[in-house]
User: What shape does this take?
Amino acid sequence: MSIRTSIATVSLSGSLETKMTAIAEAGFDGFEVFEPDLVSSPQRPKEIAARAADLGLTIDLYQPFRDVDSTNPDTFARNLIRADRKFDVMEELGCDLLLVCSSPLPTAVRDDGQLAEQLHTVAERAQERGIRLAYEALAWGAHINTYRHAWQIVADVDHPALGTCLDSFHILSRGDDPSGIRDIDGDKIFFLQLADAPHLVMDVLQWSRHHRCFPGQGNFDLGAFGAHVVASGYDGPWSLEIFNDVFRHSATGRTAADAHRSLLYLQEQVGRYPHATDQLFDPPPPGPIENIVSVRLASGPVRAPEVAWTLGHLGFEMTAAHSTHGLQLFSHGPLAVAVDTTVDTLWTAPGVPAHLPAVAQIGVRSGDPGEWLTRAHALGVPAQAVGMPGTDTDLAEVVRMSVTDATSLDLRSRSSVQSWLEAFDLVPRASAPPSSPFLTDVDHIALAVPADSWDGIMLLLRSVLGMTPHEGQDVVDAVGLVRSQALTLTTATGVIRLSLNMVPGRVSDTDPLPAARRGGVSHVAFGTHDAIAAAESMVARGFLPLQISPNYYDDLAARFDVPGDVLATLQRLGILYDANGSGGEFFHFFTPTVGDDLFFEVVQRVGDYAGYGETNSAVRLAAQLR
Amino acid sequence: MSIRTSIATVSLSGSLETKMTAIAEAGFDGFEVFEPDLVSSPQRPKEIAARAADLGLTIDLYQPFRDVDSTNPDTFARNLIRADRKFDVMEELGCDLLLVCSSPLPTAVRDDGQLAEQLHTVAERAQERGIRLAYEALAWGAHINTYRHAWQIVADVDHPALGTCLDSFHILSRGDDPSGIRDIDGDKIFFLQLADAPHLVMDVLQWSRHHRCFPGQGNFDLGAFGAHVVASGYDGPWSLEIFNDVFRHSATGRTAADAHRSLLYLQEQVGRYPHATDQLFDPPPPGPIENIVSVRLASGPVRAPEVAWTLGHLGFEMTAAHSTHGLQLFSHGPLAVAVDTTVDTLWTAPGVPAHLPAVAQIGVRSGDPGEWLTRAHALGVPAQAVGMPGTDTDLAEVVRMSVTDATSLDLRSRSSVQSWLEAFDLVPRASAPPSSPFLTDVDHIALAVPADSWDGIMLLLRSVLGMTPHEGQDVVDAVGLVRSQALTLTTATGVIRLSLNMVPGRVSDTDPLPAARRGGVSHVAFGTHDAIAAAESMVARGFLPLQISPNYYDDLAARFDVPGDVLATLQRLGILYDANGSGGEFFHFFTPTVGDDLFFEVVQRVGDYAGYGETNSAVRLAAQLR
Assistant: This one.
């Protein structure tokens, strides 16, 4: 037996029919009917009930019933009539549980005894109709705004038709301690609603109505929360109730799939706590993972020479070409970059314009890619075991999953990396052998992500791969604002760092977003032990450093104690600088954009510097735009 | 002599060069250099100074200098060096005023005496360099966060090189009483920064950094604020410092023009207070204005039959056609709707795709359009006196100004309305004369507005026309969220109501926004004395009411005491209902969308109902999408 999963229809976009279909396809057991969805639907409650049954879905909750209590007796009497009408609808729906929210109105009852009395009256009427009420504390309720207070009232009323509903948002957004949930009689928890949310300092009602997200997409500790719920003995559905502006107009099916995955991920998190129930979903653990060993860029034929030219500046040399697939292999010490000179249908989703050049694949070495395949499938991620075109690689040795519409992540066994390289034909060296390599590894890869894919990608990277998100940043520059989010995974051989940059939405047809922003810019950052030496080597190869404003170096001189001769060198080579106040330093420089959508960075980390030089973004972009 | 106008470069999008050019073209006298703009600029400070001089602009302020004070003596010593470096830059810029913000850091000095001492030290060094410091309280400053406290410290230091800077955002966002500004010695107010903001309940720092707007675009009472500043004797520049995510990537020139207009508008507001100085800009007052007398729709040839068909349902009859211009005139009692069956180049801005059909012109009767022309020009709005094509109308009798890229507002004299009508050729009646008219007036017109035009349009309607904005609404429906804002103007003959609906931005290339949302939907709402009779008349003309969900009427029965037979009639005719709790009622119904971008509404207002039935939007859209 496993935990039943459910979702409120408000969490998804579209008509009620569209939502029900997507909910069933995503694998949920049931759903909550959000009243406005029913009120807008051409289907009568009985038809909705029949459709749900056809889809194999239970209708777990009807919601919300607001403001039932009132200090005005006439209003309360009117509310009882209103409740009767809703009981009629629920009867037709075949749903026996109604969500009752605490009232935020000035007329809310503020006396516990009177409130218990009114709730008792409603519970009596509900019971006559075979209906139960789940009473929930809204975080902004006038009198009842904590789960403890709501539970206390429910206990006072002590009526079989009245229980409580727990909602993680209402509890955690207030900073309340959820451990008291353990003390609630699990049989009297009639329903459980789950929502995550990013840390935002704003009015809790606005936060709740616009910025909730699925577990694993925000910053709440829902693993601990769920463990408390398990400890209470609750055995009803785990249901998602998400109000999110982006989800409201995102593709329904994709959002539903993310939603279901988030509940699986949450159960895995809860399972790490002692005494977790064996009803929890327990996916196969993450497989072994090492570091990024290859990057595949899609250039298309037009941009291929420009990509090759820039890689040449970075000390890469084209060492091989694929006989049949238009792939060119560039090497630099241990680093391998493949360039697709054709548009590869493997990586472009239907209908998505290819912003070229782009990062098409990120290759990460794994001791056992097959373990990742099992885990991904258990979490509902459509990962595939694939062979490299034209190689005899065992299918189980490369496991591919889509990160964005344009980029896939390949987990590769050591032998698959080898046979991949061997599938290329060596080309005669075009020039003298490269001098000793000055790039050491892939420090990070930044991917441009559209707003409506953002939360799904965060969930994928966190749930399947176990990456850790860091504090998000809003980076302001001359032409706008980019939301940026780094995720890291510490492996046996180092740190894998990915950074997501939200592609700014176009606010109108005439929005003058510069070309370098339209598709969102991705970049690949290579690590070096010595940024100055690396830049000198690149200049020797013909690289023209970005022209960084001399005013920037005057400002560095005002902010940091960097010696004047070092500053002069940094300025000559277009190297930017940051420091973290605890001895950590960061030296980094950039290539111009290749096409509109890709550039390269070279970074040197000193000491414990863990950032990405975000403070220099505006200066970098200004130089690239010139 | 008039007040000098200024603007911080952070308020605009683009490079520093782009900003300076736009600032000069918009008519400002000077500007504040926002340090990150200088740091990103390829121009050295001396070049910037020369360019500003060429443009006729003064550099009024260099900003910001942060966190000057510190409880750590080493840090304070380092800050003095940092200040020296900035004085170097200012010397080259030829700018003698530096903005110094109160510190929000844990290391901020929290003893007034010590703080005064440190500021005195900095002021001494500044004075040696011929530089003055304007000390400002940030609303989130650790110790100094009110203008009174900042002023008290400045008075304590009593140094000629130290004054205070007032910023309306930092003062009004805290709910502080600005009247104390009158008690400050005007000579010690070294600078004035102005920003408006919408009412938002959120963290003040986030509010400040992302949601400021120009005076007349938000909810602060800046007229009263400015009157206090005038009373203090301050005679420096009035400068705009706006941090706004949309402005950050909007067209620089248009934002700068709006910015300058906002300062003119603000001065007019301030001028209404007693004892205002004669330095204030004082534009010609609004002219006479009556009601909306005509609407011109652009249908294009393809949609013309569908528009005509829908107008026919609404009881309009095509009574005339223009001999040469492809205009068809539809009449219903006092109402005149002209339909452009060609795409009229008058109303499409270059590069803006025409979403047809659209509201191309709104005709409002005025006793003297010429007065409006004078006022519009004084406020920098490019209004035009135009003749109707093919008529001999005196140019001064029709004054046109653009509201959105697609819609203009025409102020028309009575005789111009008459001659406009006479320019049409009567067509033979196609049917029996219409029965008695059931529509009385244009109740409101809702226009779709892109996000980056929103604030500019708000400012236009408020400044030139004197319209009053009402509380904004976020309307949630099945496929997203629409920001909606009503503005009204009470005239001699009634109320002119316009409603702006923000066109949702596309969050990605694959964003599945339905067709009915892509260009944003506009609509024209006609008033009636009896919505049921109007709907019956329309059904008699072949109108098929929208199929509203029966569940909606069940919900009405639960929420309101509407008699069952009335509900049945409303349901049969697809009429929606709302009530305001004080006896006011609202009956309204809709046509299907004509094309994707336009529909019509018929509304009946009862009692003091002043809204627009926003609560029914989701039900309306669901029915229209089916």
